[in-house]
Fold each of these.
Amino acid sequence: AQSVTQLDSQVPVFEEAPVELRCNYSSSVSVYLFWYVQYPNQGLQLLLKYLSGSTLVKGINGFEAEFNKSQTSFHLRKPSVHISDTAEYFCAVSSNAGNNRKLIWGLGTSLAVNP
Amino acid sequence: DVKVTQSSRYLVKRTGEKVFLECVQDMDHENMFWYRQDPGLGLRLIYFSYDVKMKEKGDIPEGYSVSREKKERFSLILESASTNQTSMYLCASRPSGLYGYTFGSGTRLTVV
């Protein structure tokens, strides 16, 4: 069975500081990995995804994530955050074996960017 | 711009009412999903559908049913609403293959 752990439920940070949101997964098969963002009172929006190839993935709004197979991690980073990055961030994993219709979700990390 | 549309942003219903939440996508996606989102519990899958008239239970199907008569529309039904079904409900769709989900804006349901 697959699972996703987001290691921090809340991350406070000052504006223009760097941030890392941590995500670890467990799976016995190869996986595809996703990060989503949810702004207040909205649905979720895809930030970036790793399917194959380069382990460093760039997404929207200046975010990037690195897939580390040996550490089973997919941490999200941004070198300088803005107030507008305040949101909930979700990591998700999908198996590439068999039925891959569903995503397995982490519980989310609430990023609060303070002035 | 492709999108998933949920018919209501906010809904207030009484205990025992039958409630319909509607979701329409304009992307010709095969797969559609209903989640509920509660603080501290993340997203929990209620039901999903991978084709017209096909459905599969997710992790928390009790108290819910779904209908998919047309490819673009996926309805979530609360047969007899209860206060513990007060939540944010999110609909999503996804094509076959290696793609992420497209989400609707959500329906915040309050059962009183």
Note: Chain A has no helices and twelve strands.
Amino acid sequence: NAGVMQNPRHLVRRRGQEARLRCSPMKGHSHVYWYRQLPEEGLKFMVYLQKENIIDESGMPKERFSAEFPKEGPSILRIQQVVRGDSADYFCASSPSPGELFFGEGSRLTVL
Amino acid sequence: EDQVTQSPEALRLQEGESSSLNCSYTVSGLRGLFWYRQDPGKGPEFLFTLYSAGEEKEKERLKATLTKKESFLHITAPKPEDSATYLCAGELSGGYNKLIFGAGTRLAVHP
């Protein structure tokens, strides 16, 4: 059973460009979460999605950030007009049910 | 304010030297307390979830315990391959895995 798959592993963008990060959950998992880890800081919750629904986006910045988990295909975290402060490791996690949360390897975003 | 604090920030042990990592929390309506291991450049690897005070769980050289205010991760006779950052997280009320993480304890085990 493959784990949570994230791509790209590394993404470099210039200020003002768009970044798209993709996440395929583990087989059989219908709950997807995005967390962000800033340099020298702990992981911070961003958003929780189920298929075609955003359940909780309370940790996501109101501007420029959006997330989706379509009926078909991976979950996508989109950051528009990136700024240097968006540079971080973005982790996706999935779970079959509450109580177990499995993380992917992460996507490192570097904004020049 | 919900908060999870881990100590120490860093810990250096000799191989075979047992020790404990601390995680104290102030999370209203805590549903569960999670422990993860994170290696450099990797995602967190799930270790344990604890739900009630007095609960204990073990995995190889690791044992996690939970009280009403803190959790401990005991490492017995550690080996160099146990070197990693150990993360503690409290699950907020709501019925799903919305976690608040501590900053982690960086463990280095030397032969």
Note: The first strand of chain B starts at residue 3 and ends at 7.
